[in-house]
Every structure is written in C-alpha cells, then in structure tokens.
C-alpha cells in the first residue's frame, strides 16, 4: 500500500515581505489547521415541521482513502471540529475525494438534510458582477484563500445532530458548519463581510470578497504590499486561517474565481479552458447540465451563447428522462457541444469598466433570444466589457419580430445594470425598434 507524503509549508517559504510583518497564527502551515472566528454566535438550524431524519448507508471507500479519512477525522476531533455522537438519529454518509494535488478531503452527502431545513434568503454575491469592483487602473493584485473557512464558524449544540455520519462503527457529528450544507456559503459570506467592515486599508486598495476568496487590487506595488499585510493581520486577529500555498502575493496577473485578472482586463483562465476541453460529449441529462454549467459560468465571454447552447439546453427539460437513461447526441446537439468548446478557446479579453467613460450597449434579437454586447471606447475602437444573451419567455417569443426586438432591448438592459449602475449609457438598436417606439402605435403598447 502506497502512502503519499506531502511537504509541510514553513514560515521561511513565505514571501520575504510577509516574514515577521504578519502574525504567525493566521497561517495554516500544515493544511490541516482550522480557525475559529471570534465573536460569532453558534449557528442554529431551523427544521421544517414533520421532518423525517435521514438514515443513509455509508458509501464504500478504498483502503488508501480510508486511511487518510481516518487521519482527517482524528485531526478534526483534536481541534473540536468533530465530536462523537452515538445517540444521533441522523446519518448522512461521507466520501473521501482525492483533490488534484493528491490529498483527500471529506465530502458529506447532505442532500436529505438540505431538504428538511428551513432555507434563508441566500446572500451570496454574483461572481460575474463583483469582478467589476476591480478598478480599471489597478495594476497589482493579491489573492487570499481562507483555509477550511466554513469550519471556522461554530454550530449550535442543538443543531449538531443533524450533520452526523457513521465511520468505522462510530457516529460523529460536526461542531462547525459543514461543507455540503446548502446554507453554509450564505452564512459564511455574511459573517466574513461583517468581520471585514472595521478593516481600514492604509493605502486605499480595493478589497473584493466572494465567500471565502479575497482579492486586493492596487495601483502600486507598495500599496498592494502594505494593504495585504493589513488584511492578513486583521484576519489572524479575528480567528481566520489563510492557506499560504494558495496565496498569490503582489502579482501583475492573478487567478481569481477562474478569471485571469490583469490591469484593465480579465480573461478565462487556461485551467478553466482546459477543464472544458477535456470534457467528453454528454451521455446523460446530468452530464449536459454539468457541461452547460461550466461553459455558462463563462458566458460573458461568449457572443450568442443562448443561441449556440439552445440544442443542448433542450436536453435539460422535463421531456428528457433523468439517469439511468442515456442520451445520444444528434448532429445538431454535437455541433452545439463542439462550438461551445471552440468559443471557450477563442474567448476575447474583456475590459474592466471605466466609470469615467460612457457605456455603449449594442442590442438585437434573433431566434427568440436577446443578444447584446456592452462596450466602452478603448483607443480608437470599442472594447467589449461583457456579452449578454438570454432566451425570451414563451409569451415574448410569440410576438411579432419588431416587438420581440423591443423586449430583447429591455432584457439586455436588465442584464447589464449590475455593471453600468446608473452611469451614462447609450443603447444602440435596430432601426425597426426606433420606428416602433417613436412613430407607431400598436395594440401591444400604450402610453402607460
């Protein structure tokens, strides 16, 4: 049996600027350390009336994964993240998934628990929108990844039994909010946001937060350096842990949320493109959804996304059976799959919005889809900031072509409002829209 040993990160391995200037307790040097955020009340989970607690069988693990999971559980017990819970009425099985780096992480199947808890309104930002918080003139960047972030928030004792699992004839439950729980991202996002409110960055860099991923964007290298140090010290004093291996410190190019960020622009990362290119043609409804989810995350780089993806999107409808039924792609569906891959490869760099310049929105409608591109003048040309597309609803799709074009303009304006935010915007539309709005009266439109 082969056991892989992973090198331990030491303080000497940190960038020289951070040695001695950042409190040591902020670092997760072993990859196993868990923080505990100060001043946060334990989270209590509300259960639906007449809820039935799940009792699911444990999934099979290979021997090598079993050994690593045993060690992980021992580390969590030592740090108070887990506890034994022999009388818990719930059992949601765990799995040991091997990460690309070779390490194993515990994943718990909490789908049944997620069905019986009362859900709060999700408070998680749209990753496509928050990227536009990055100033167009920022040139230096730091990305901070919080280590095992959800485990840094305590779970109320009355709710711990819900997240129990059986492992090697013992029952354990989480004492911290677990991964896989549907409310964990929203809970953590709100708590970290509140925790960062008192932080004052001395050089006024921009701080962007998406759940547990933080980005500092600065105009100069020194401001990036000192504001990064201020952020790390604030996190350490408040009980967070930071992964030193994943730290991208004072760089002109960084990967953040799958985007390659540099001065004035953003691209799809090479890693993100590679993952999509390696995907095989889907054979099940689940495969289709997974592929569309991957490329859909990058749809702002893909002109006409809704039209190109339409053949595959139809496969996610109710008329197509779920697993274990398989899907054989038609020629049209396969062409859609391959074209989306090609679009990922040739995706352009998108400009960061410059709020000192006006925006231009070019809109039109085709095949019952709204299609648009938001641009700004860059040099002697218009540079795209984002591409938008969406399928019209059945009522709008049944309208005459000139009215569909009007609906498409309204839809495009709604899609770009998170970027434009009320700044000057010129909308460019087909001539038929201008005629309809200014010179024609129809039964579909009134002065109201």
TrEMBL record:
EC assignment: 3.1.26.4
Molecular function terms from GO: RNA-DNA hybrid ribonuclease activity
Domain Reverse transcriptase span(s) in chain numbering: 78-261
Gene3D superfamilies: 3.10.20.370, 3.30.70.270, HIV Type 1 Reverse Transcriptase, subunit A, domain 1 (3.10.10.10)
Top-level EC class: hydrolase
Record-linked PROSITE patterns: RT_POL (PS50878)
Pfam families membership: RT_RNaseH_2, RVT_1
Family indicated by similarity: Belongs to the beta type-B retroviral polymerase family. HERV class-II K(HML-2) pol subfamily.
Protein name according to UniProt: ribonuclease H
UniProt source species: Pleurodeles waltl
